[in-house]
Specification:
mainly alpha, two-stranded antiparallel ribbon, about 70% helix, globular
Length: about 240
């Protein structure tokens, strides 16, 4: 019988994972959503505003690619863009493989909660503070060294749990939402785990000195603040039900 030995987690990785205490899974607005206390208006507001962030993800990832000279990293990182934008590939045998991608899945979530595709796409419901926060994240990824932009993606360390919460609680609390609209969350549980492996490997390899590791934690906190600020803006606009 083969026994698999798990390598101990480094103190640096432990520091990164410890930042999950500031993840927006703990924000009152998200807690309200996942405990069944949100109104249809609040859910629609969250879906419409979060779409602003969803559409920025592949733009951010393209910025990482444009700044990265490492071919192996680029070959892995490009999958993130395909995950969100979708793809259509026709092989030599004429068979075509299609994936509509995460942005399309989010549009279907919008329809499932009662929004039209048009009003999600045109951003009419997006709060200025949400747009500002999203723009700040994309601009950071464009201007920072590519390794720092990769590090900022490590909020994915905490993402599978928030998606699993939604999958577990939304069908029970919000029976009026078509379950097919929750496909985005189902897809991201596994995709986020895969993305974490790559992003974490780059971060652990690049940020080696104490000063560099302090910088990595600072970057991760910046990204956590972006997500928290988005929830702050939505809480102010739509309220939080006790």
């Amino acid at each position: 019988m083969t026994v698999t030995t798990m390598l101990p987690m480094s103190p640096f990785e432990a520091r990164l994972r410890d930042q999950g205490r500031a993840y927006h899974i703990h924000h009152p607005f998200n807690v309200m959503l996942n405990t069944g206390k949100a109104t249809p208006e609040q859910i629609r507001g969250w879906v419409a505003n979060r779409f602003c962030y969803q559409t920025a993800i592949p733009v951010k990832d393209a910025a990482v690619l444009s700044n990265c000279p490492d071919r192996d990293v680029r070959r892995g990182w490009i999958q993130r863009i395909l995950d969100h934008d979708g793809f259509e590939i026709t092989g030599a045998d004429g068979a075509t493989v299609r994936d509509p991608g995460g942005i399309e899945a989010w549009l279907r979530l919008g329809e499932a909660v009662g929004l039209t595709r048009e009003e999600v796409l045109d951003g009419r419901h997006v709060i200025p503070a949400v747009r500002f926060a999203v723009d700040a994240y994309v601009n950071f990824a464009r201007r920072a060294p590519w390794q720092e932009a990769v590090c900022s993606s490590l909020t994915e360390l905490f993402a599978p749990e928030i998606h699993k919460q939604r999958l577990a609680t939304w069908p029970a609390h919000y029976g009026w939402i078509d379950p097919a609209g929750l496909a985005y969350f189902r897809n991201r549980v596994s995709q986020a785990r895969r993305d974490v492996e790559q992003g974490l490997a780059v971060t652990l390899d690049h940020f080696r000195t104490p000063a560099q590791q302090d910088r990595a934690v600072e970057i991760l906190r910046f990204k956590l603040d972006i997500l928290w600020a988005m929830n702050d803006a939505m809480a102010q606009r739509y309220g939080v039900n006790a």
